[in-house]
Write a structure and sequence with these properties.
The chain has a seven-stranded mixed beta sheet with strand order 1-7-6-2-5-3-4, sandwiched between helices. 32% of the residues are buried. The protein is built from seven helices and seven strands. It is 37% helix and 22% strand. Helix 1 (8-21) packs across helix 2.
Length: 190
């Protein structure tokens, strides 16, 4: 049996969060995928981070997310941000985030990067496309992380492999998320 990626402390904190709030784990599709772009939707509340992070600890999925380099270098919060999955991105350089993520995938044997394609907690009809092009450039699938507040369930849905037809792939992805209810449903995926 392989060793857990999640530290025992974070695992029990996550278990406590789920127990106190009444949440449960749902689907964990394709657990054998080692590299992927994970998207999370609908993103309608700051609570999403807490429940999603707890779910990933319980599922033993080592999810990373991009943050400004200043957050990981901060003298007080840097260690905490890194310990919960923060991956530093230096925005002072005029570089492409898509290329940067593709390079990160090429440099690691296992890597899951979490992105919220809406880019905001408000309703957004047009998602940012960077997650798609980063996954395509790195030749990794897009996995569908979700929080369903209606059922108090967190999980990972099916993997979508970029076909090169962004509109068709985005519609397939959004169709999955239309079955999930955000904390504030009016701000969710339509």
């Amino acid at each position: 049996m392989p060793a857990r990626k999640t530290s025992t402390v974070w695992f029990y904190i996550a278990k406590f969060v789920f127990w106190v709030s009444g949440w449960k784990l749902g689907q964990l599709a394709n657990p054998d995928i080692k590299k992927s772009m994970m998207i999370a939707a609908p993103h309608t509340s700051n609570w999403d981070l807490i429940y999603a992070r707890a779910a990933f600890y319980l599922m033993d999925v080592d999810v990373r997310f991009t943050v400004k380099k200043e957050w990981t270098d901060h003298w007080l919060l840097g260690g905490l941000v890194r310990s919960v999955g923060g991956l530093a991105v230096d925005r002072t350089k005029n570089n492409s985030l898509v290329e940067g993520m593709a390079e990160l995938f090429n440099a690691h044997d296992e890597l899951v990067i979490l992105i919220t394609p809406e880019g905001t907690r408000k309703y957004q009809p047009r998602w940012r496309k960077g997650y798609y092009f980063a996954a395509s450039a790195a030749h990794v699938p897009i996995r569908l992380g979700y929080l369903d507040y209606k059922n108090k369930e967190a999980g990972i849905g099916p993997a979508v492999y970029p076909s090169g037809d962004y509109a068709a792939d985005e519609e397939k992805i959004k169709a999955f998320y239309r079955t999930k209810t955000g904390r504030f449903p009016a701000q969710g995926v339509r």
